[in-house]
Design a protein that fits this description.
Shape: elongated
Organism: Streptomyces tubercidicus
Helix content: 55-70%
CATH superfamily of one domain: Winged helix-like DNA-binding domain superfamily/Winged helix DNA-binding domain
Strand order of the largest sheet: 1-3-2
CATH architecture of one domain: Orthogonal Bundle
GO molecular function, one term: DNA-binding transcription factor activity
Protein name: HTH marR-type domain-containing protein
InterPro entries: HTH_MarR-typ, MarR/SlyA-like, WH-like_DNA-bd_sf, WH_DNA-bd_sf
Structural class: mainly alpha
CATH class of one domain: Mainly Alpha
Order of helices and strands: HHEHHEEHH
Length: about 150
């Protein structure tokens, strides 16, 4: 008997939707990681931390980075160490809490982030943003917000 793939119709919709999220996250993350590493010697984990830092007008408490990214606190700490050693980020004592530090991008960090973000967008365009319309993107954003809001559940 010949082996064949299951069709979407043979899989419960919730299972297919979950598999799709896992597949898309894995494939797109690997694609972005390869592009950023090749063009900028920048792993995607570093880019994620830089994205949060670049999005904030003020220095970000290290604990907030740990809660915002998909990385563990120890991974965030190692990434910030690496960014700092490359002159891309700085740590400063918090003015509000003497026990904590705040992290910000340096001018070189902002410059590299802008270049890397352009690379990320170009890398994703043919396989993501060019394929989806505004309604698709808004639906995905809504799904993401609902899942993230209940992440502790």
């Amino acid at each position: 008997m010949a082996k064949r793939k299951l069709t979407q119709a043979e899989m419960p919709v919730a299972d297919h939707a979950f598999y799709g999220l896992v597949w898309a996250g894995t494939v797109l993350t690997e694609r972005v990681d390869r592009a950023l590493s090749k063009a900028h010697d920048l792993p995607v984990s570093w880019f994620e931390v830089m994205l949060w830092l670049a999005s904030s007008p003020d220095p970000v408490p290290a604990s907030v980075l740990g809660n915002s990214t998909m990385l563990s606190r120890s991974q965030v700490s190692r990434v910030v160490d690496a960014l700092q050693s490359r002159g891309l980020a700085t740590r400063t004592p918090s003015a509000r809490d003497a026990r904590s530090v705040e992290v910000s991008l340096t001018p070189d960090g902002h410059r590299l982030f802008d270049e890397a973000d352009a690379t990320r967008r170009a890398c994703l365009a043919p396989v993501f943003t060019d394929l989806l319309d505004q309604e698709d993107l808004e639906a995905l954003s809504t799904v993401w917000r609902k899942l993230k809001a209940n992440k502790e559940g």
